[in-house]
Amino acid sequence: MSHSTAHAAHHPALQHHFDTLEQQQNASTLGMWWFLVTEVLFFGGFFMTYILYRWMYNASFHEASHELNVWLGLFNTAVLIGSSLTMALAVRASKTGEKSQLVMFLILTLLLGSVFLGVKVIEYSEKFTHHLVPGAHFQFHDATLKNGAEIYFSLYFGMTGLHATHMIFGGFVLVPLIVMAARGKFGPAWYTPIELFGLYWHFVDIVWIFLFPLLYLM
Amino acid sequence: MHEVRTNELDSSSAPTTPAVHYLNATHGAASWFFTKDHKRIALLYLYSVSTFFLVGGIFAMLVRLELATPRGDLLSAETYNKVFTAHGVVMVFFFLIPAIPAILGNFLVPLMIGAKDLAFPRINLASWYLYMTGGLFGVAVLVMGGVDTGWTFYTPYSTAASNSHVVLTALGAFVAGFSSIFTGLNFIVTIHTMRAPGMTWDRLPLFIWSHYATSLIMMLGTPVVAVTLMMVVLERTLRLGFFNPDLGGDPVLFQHLFWFYSHPAVYIMVLPGMGVISEIVAAFSRKPVFGYKMVAMASLGIALIGFLVWGHHMFTTSQSVLAAVTFSFLSFLVAIPSAIKVFNWTATLYRGSVLLDSPMLYAIGFIGLFTIGGLTGLFLAAIGLDIHVHDTYFVVAHFHYVMVGGTLLAYLGGLHYWWPKITGKLYSEPWAKTSAVIVFVGFNLTFFPQFVLGYMGMPRRYHAYPAEELSWQVLNVLSSAGASILAIGLFLPLIYLTYAAFRGRPAGPNPWGAYGLEWETTSPPPTANFEVTPIVTKPAYYYAPEEH
Ligand code: HEM
Ligand SMILES: [Cu+2]
């Protein structure tokens, strides 16, 4: 054990200001968890707003949610859960040092993420053609519910847009990770970036698990 | 511990500066702009935060010049709105919030716990770039003609009415907010994972405790204001409706979300200052801080309760009576941990061998001004009184006493206290003492009359006031005169501290004879902070009495 720690201390990934690789991993993991806490609060502002207006405009929200395509939403939920699964498998592969599996699962994650975003584009464009985008051209079949419906769609675009931004960001991080994985940078001694990215990806997934019922089903 | 004060040393044993230290270890602009050394990043912040302070100060002087006469003769109402907004935005987001954490915290957190650097040096550098990006947005706004919403961006004015540059300003604050989040994250992780052997939680300097509490607020509050500013931007640009009553939105919701951050944010400003004061008071009384544990826990208490009182900014809105009474009660509660600190500093001073060096003068000024500011906070937390003085100069005076009297004085005190460590040089003590006195006098002359003005009913944010109210003009002239004195007091340190950095005598590792890890390494410290990792065997503030 003492040998392996001494060995780990010379790992190329060990940065100068840490004493051991273990200390470095603890720091990174703690940092990621705290970052996710800040993310929860970031989305929290939107969720708070949603709760308040849901309460004020219950009927409008109910009616407006019928305009969303539940099937597309359901499909996307499945896609996202699938990507969470491939990501979890990628983390496992990085720990066991199975390089080709790691690369494959990371690519699959990226693909599934892109499918999700592609479906989102279809959904958004449907809203445009149905004049459901808030602003001067907003139309709603029931004029008495229009104000609430407009707020509903503001929240829809705000929340799913923020979520999609997180997905896009994740995609941009995945690409270099795939390259690094293909070059064999990760293995049992050091897989922190993969593990941390996995946490991030699951977080984005969980946010959707809340968004889907709130926006599509209620 | 070598208790001989440097200025009493004879030349034969005069301290010298180490040959290689963090300032001269590498050379060239790139070695600064791409540095990952927390100490150099602290200096990058020092330069940029000071510049913003100067900009904010110029706007403050414009405000005071305008108000010296009752007529709106210097600035039009429109320009005046832009001037006080620029003052508020720059001072709050680009000076008060980053000043102590980003400069002193960055420099000292690793040193004080015996670490080689912060946990994430690259994120630390990125934080500075985020801060600068936010600042550049702010500067761009000023060049393009300014913004007139006030630093609080109240809706629906900010989203539907104002035709000034709200979007870019909000984005600037948004980006700077992420700088603050990442700084907090870095501190928390560093304090958790990188303490030197023996640096247990109950031995952490109070400066570290206060930064720990501050970091929690930065991480838990800032994201909420960030997303709120994002909603403002979305409402303005894409007409997504969140707060606009025309679209069925609720402007008071904006205030709730805004103050959920911005009340705790006042503690982002003042808690690090309290940490500074604890260090200075201990060092210059040669005693451990009285009730160390209580002071440490009070920091966490302030952070916690600070999140529960935001509604006291909304006593005059449609908020329900029950909510108002609850927020009022909770606001009184938050005074308790602050009072604990003030009492414990006083108890530390009591019967200490108090040395009135310049940092100590600032610290004593802090305690006085912060107490006045805090007590008037209690006036405001009482609903009936608040309705009388809400949005008057009484509020302006209150928050300047706590933010300027508190944060700024602590910042200056800390800068003086650690300047020998940062630069390795001693500054002129007589000049430093003089400027501390000028700041104190100028400050009180500026802001005390504003309490009276507010109580008499002068509203804030107006560029003119009735000429018949002669006493109003007298008080305003006093205030403007005080502002000029204050400006002099703030300008002097710029000169003698800069001079000292180049021409001062070498300070040696521990010119104050203070206790703490940062004083055990050379001044300036080497890039890796310590030649060998220190091992801590004694509690914080181990000023053994028999040595004096
Ligand atoms: C500790 C440091 C404190 C700081 C830096 C601070 C800062 C501020 C600021 C900036 C404002 C004005 C916000 C604006 O409208 O632009 C304000 C208002 C207020 N503060 Fe404080 N404050 C502090 C402590 C307290 C305490 C301890 C209390 C109560 C116990 C308090 C109660 C209030 C209330 C009720 C207002 C609203 C007044 C009104 O707008 O009518 N403050 N404070
Ligand atoms: Cu407040």
Q: What is the CATH topology of chain B?
A: Cytochrome C Oxidase, Chain A
Largest interface: A-B, 40 and 42 residues
Q: How big is the Rg of chain A?
A: 21 Å
Give the strand tally of chain A.
0
What amount of the residues of chain A lies in strands? under 5%
CATH architecture call of chain B: Up-down Bundle
- Oligomer status: heterodimer
Low-confidence stretches of chain B: 1-11
Q: What is the global morphology of chain B?
A: globular
User: Can you tell me the overall shape of chain A?
Assistant: elongated
Strand content of chain B: under 5%
Number of helices of chain B: 15
Discrete helix count of chain A: 7
What does it look like?
The complex is a heterodimer of chains A (218) and B (548). Chain A has helices spanning 2-8, 21-56, 58-65, 70-96, 99-129, 146-182, 192-217. Chain A is mainly alpha-helical and 218 residues long. Helix content of chain A is 79%, strand content 0%. Chain A has one domain: Four Helix Bundle (Hemerythrin (Met), subunit A). Chain A is built from seven helices and no strands. Chain B is an all-alpha fold and 548 residues long. Helix content of chain B is 66%, strand content 0%. Chain B has 15 helices and no strands. Chain B has helices at 29-33, 38-67, 77-113, 121-144, 157-161, 166-193, 206-237, 251-285, 292-306, 321-349, 358-381, 383-389, 393-423, 429-456, 470-503. In chain B, helix 11 packs antiparallel against helix 13. The termini of chain B are close together. The interface between A and B is large, with 40 and 42 residues. Bound molecules: protoporphyrin IX containing FE (HEM) and copper (II) ion (CU). Copper (II) ion (CU) is lined by residues 263, 266, 312-313 of chain B. The site of copper (II) ion (CU) has 4 residues of chain B, from helix 8. Chain A: This is Cytochrome c oxidase subunit 3. Chain A: It is found in: Cell membrane; Membrane.
